Amino acid sequence: MNSLVFSFSEAYEKEGFLQWLQKEADEVLYRDFRALEGCCCYCDESAQEAIEMALEGPLPRLRWLDSGDYHYLSYLLAKRQQAPFHLVLMDNHPDNQAPAFGGVLSCGGWVKEARERLDKLRDILTVGPEGGEKEVSARWVEARRGEKVYVSLDKDIMRREYARTDWSQGAYGLEEVKRMLALLTENMEVVAVDICGETAPSKGATGEDLRINLETNKELYSFIDSHF
Length: 228
Hints:
alpha/beta, two-stranded antiparallel ribbon, globular
């Protein structure tokens, strides 16, 4: 299966996940933004322009976004959808805050931006944070059977046993996440899966943190590869 990999913090390289993907995936489309300024948590106009220029042309359906600081990439990627779709967000945070700096795209507000600006977006199911749903329910899926769905997964929805992120984390296990993904892939047309939630050594990640994130990423890749 093809993968699109974004590198901002160099987490995937330090984990060894990029190297593993380059051996296991059919093709890896690598986008190196390690030197890009104005893109951490908030994405200013010039950074957004640089990122969107790098997204031209066909893209793999599986995308690795780096840490949750760059979760706004899901907005930039979902903008490219040409047909009506639903968004399923699995996250320990709703990411629907109003921007603190005059409309600048952010990791904490991209869902609000998507709701207000993406005319192809039909509805949003948020699973994980307080006030959100507890799961992707069979009832929700059945009402949209066969329709297009875009999945954005922040690994901070999971316990530290399965993910080491630099945001507060939830209580989900990897198997729970996989069950929700399976329900979607078996009953809807999954147009894309975005995954974020890394921690880099520059932000204090230990060898154990990198090992746990690597193993979970490998599990997620293998699971999605077998279900797409």
